[in-house]
Design brief:
Shape of chain B: globular
Structural class of chain B: mainly alpha
Largest sheet of chain A: none
Number of helices of chain B: 12
Largest sheet of chain B: none
Number of strands of chain B: 0
Order of helices and strands of chain B: HHHHHHHHHHHH
Helix content of chain B: over 70%
Radius of gyration of chain B: 23 Å
Distance between the termini of chain A: 30 Å
Oligomer: heterodimer
Shape of chain A: flat
Structural class of chain A: mainly alpha
Number of helices of chain A: 11
Number of strands of chain A: 0
Chain lengths: 316, 313
């Protein structure tokens, strides 16, 4: 089936020939069967074809702006205590109300975005770097594979939240330690994914060609293998980011995460827990922001997966 | 067949060994001095030293690891620093609520997730399919405690249909027991349902395109017979696999669900242990759950031959 633009081009071409050789009758104007397709190009076109990336990306960007600009968005000091105005309902003065220590929940939720996004992005970055390294070594050097994968299997047998809890029980609560604990829990899954990709890549003829040409192993890994892991890795990194944000909130919620002095969504919910039957808004505002942010990152991941790997599209 | 079973069981031994080694070495991997962290900020140097000795941090790693494994093989999971009771006893006292919650969640999740996954695959690219997929994305995004609070708020506080919190033992009657577990089970099962439904749909989509499905349709078989008798059987292996893998989600989520719904199970034991920095308890719980997880997945591997006679080993 020829596309309408081709049909128009044909018609024009015939019209030109007809004009050049007046001996023939002018070709009849071909009717437009389809209206012309508007091919959108560039960034706009890409976002138009992948609405999940557009919506998810826009939401993530909004959250990032909120996190970065938290001090200038009508917030007050999120840790300022004011016993006189404890547990106020949401109002014009306190948009999301105040908690049992009189702290402004709107300010705390906005500042909480910094912890959530910070932990999510850091874990995604660190787990990607560690997972790429381990996966590349394990997938390319067969002698290391058996040992590394047994270790990863063992680590994967420990439910990630429990692993993070155990690590947090042994360290002082700090954002850095939360990031480390969640990264350790996420690395095995990332390594396995990268290893799987590397195993198929190293059988490719172009890798054989590189080996035959005497390319050094390091160069093969960095120039020929690594670039091809970028697409699946990017998708995986968004899922790791989403999962890390949930784990951070869970850890803070049960008292094994971010220290209570730093407002994070998990902490705000943990503090609202005692009163939630009478003052549910203390729990629901951070809960809403957390869910929305994780949803945005997941949408972004699904969109990237469909865009980067069309074969996977529609399958999962 | 028997050969395979034996080989598969033997293959879990190295995994278990790595799990044990890893859980044990957490004490040594953790940055800083774990003894000082566990002792707390007000501890005297003597307190820290006492804890260091009770954790065995003053002796060589391999010697201590050997002793620890030997104790575990004899059913001794260590002693709580806070209560001085054996960890195995503490876990034993709290196991019923957690086990109840997990079993109810498992049954509920599988009986919801598989039918909606099948439905989505059958009605692929329709509104029903989109709705199921949208639900799946939501399931992966809304954390377990958020679902828990929403459910408790709507069905317990506002509508007053079910109890808000707490747990009733099974011996006090089936309904009181179940009534307390329905909301926690839905909350805990939310992400699990999303996961199973997604995999069920993907596998069913592939199976439904095969020739024998067309044959079944051509011979006049009913739609539900095709879906559930013919197609689901062949889609069973990936579905059962993901049910097994997803148990990890249940174990991690149970800790949080139990604190939201005030269920006195192992999750609460974990949270209490975190607040008191009672590391032996946490270590025992992590080890126990990891072993259970490995064993469940071993069982599922062995089930494959029953589910799919084409699989021979």
């Amino acid at each position: 089936m020829s596309s309408p633009s081709q049909a128009t081009a044909l018609a024009t071409a015939e019209a030109v020939t007809a004009a050049a050789a007046p001996a023939f009758a002018a070709a009849p104007e071909l009717p437009d069967i389809w209206p012309p397709v508007r091919v959108r190009r560039g960034l706009i076109g890409f976002l138009w074809r992948h609405p999940a990336i557009a919506v998810g990306g826009a939401l993530v960007a909004t959250m990032l702006v909120i996190a970065l600009l938290a001090p200038w968005l009508g917030t007050v000091d999120p840790t300022a205590l004011a016993p006189a105005r404890r547990t106020r309902e949401p109002s014009a003065a306190f948009w999301f109300g105040t908690d049992m220590l009189g702290r402004d929940i709107y300010s705390r939720v906005l500042y909480g975005a910094r912890v959530s996004l910070g932990v999510g992005f850091s874990v995604a970055l660190l787990a990607s770097i560690a997972g790429l390294t381990i996966g590349l070594v394990s997938g390319f050097f067969r002698w290391a594979d058996g040992f590394i994968m047994r270790v990863m299997d063992g680590m994967m047998s420990i439910p990630p939240i429990l692993l993070a809890i155990a690590l947090m029980a042994l360290t002082r609560g700090s954002v850095g330690n939360v990031i480390t604990a969640i990264t350790i829990a996420e690395v095995p899954r990332v390594s396995r994914l990268v290893r799987g990709v590397v195993l198929t890549l190293r059988e490719q003829p172009y890798v054989d060609a590189a080996v035959a040409a005497g390319t050094r192993t390091g160069t093969i890994l960095l120039r020929h293998i690594l670039p091809n892991t970028v697409a699946p890795m990017t998708v995986q990194a968004t899922y790791v980011c989403a999962s890390a944000m949930i784990v951070e909130a869970i850890l803070s919620f049960i008292g094994a995460g971010t220290p209570p002095t730093i407002p994070s969504w998990g902490n705000i919910m943990a503090e609202g827990r005692a009163l939630w039957q009478v003052k549910p808004y203390i729990v629901f505002f951070p809960a809403f922001f957390l869910s929305l942010t994780v949803l945005a990152v997941n949408l972004l991941g699904d969109g990237l997966r469909d865009a980067l790997d069309p074969r996977m599209m529609k399958r999962l | 067949m028997l050969n395979y079973v034996i080989r598969r069981i033997l293959a879990t031994i190295p995994v278990m060994a790595v799990v044990a080694l890893f859980v044990f070495s957490l004490l040594y991997i953790a940055p800083g001095d774990p003894a000082a962290v566990i002792a707390g900020d007000q501890a005297t140097p003597a307190d820290v030293e006492r804890i260091r000795q009770s954790l065995g941090l003053d002796r060589p790693f391999l010697v201590r690891f050997g002793e620890w494994v030997w104790q575990i093989l004899h059913g001794d999971l260590g002693t709580s620093i806070f209560t001085n009771l054996p960890v195995a006893d503490l876990i034993g006292q709290r196991i019923e609520p957690t086990l109840s919650l997990m079993v109810v969640t498992l049954i509920l999740a599988v009986s919801i997730a598989v039918p909606i996954g099948v439905l989505a695959a059958w009605k692929a690219d329709t509104l029903i399919d989109r709705a199921v997929m949208a639900f799946a994305v939501l399931g992966f995004s809304v954390p377990v405690f958020v679902v828990g609070y929403l459910l408790a708020y709507v069905f317990a506080l506002e509508l007053d249909w079910l109890p808000v919190q707490g747990y009733t033992q099974l011996r006090n009657g089936l309904w009181p027991w179940l009534a307390n577990l329905i909301l926690p089970a839905i909350a805990l099962g939310f992400v699990y349902i999303a996961l199973i439904a997604r995999v069920t749909r993907a596998t069913m989509l592939e199976v439904l395109q095969q020739d024998y499905i067309r044959t079944a349709r051509a011979k006049g078989m009913g739609q539900s017979g095709i879906l559930f008798l013919h197609a689901l059987k062949n889609a069973a292996v990936p579905i059962v696999t993901v049910i097994g893998i997803g148990i990890a989600l249940l174990i991690g989520g149970a800790v949080v669900t139990e604190s939201v719904f005030a269920i006195p199970g192992i999750g609460r034991l974990t949270v209490d242990a975190i607040l008191r920095r009672d590391y032996p308890v946490i270590q025992g719980i992590v080890l126990l759950f990891s072993v259970v997880y490995v064993l469940v997945n071993l069982l599922i591997d062995l089930l494959y031959t029953l589910l799919d006679p084409r699989i021979r080993y």
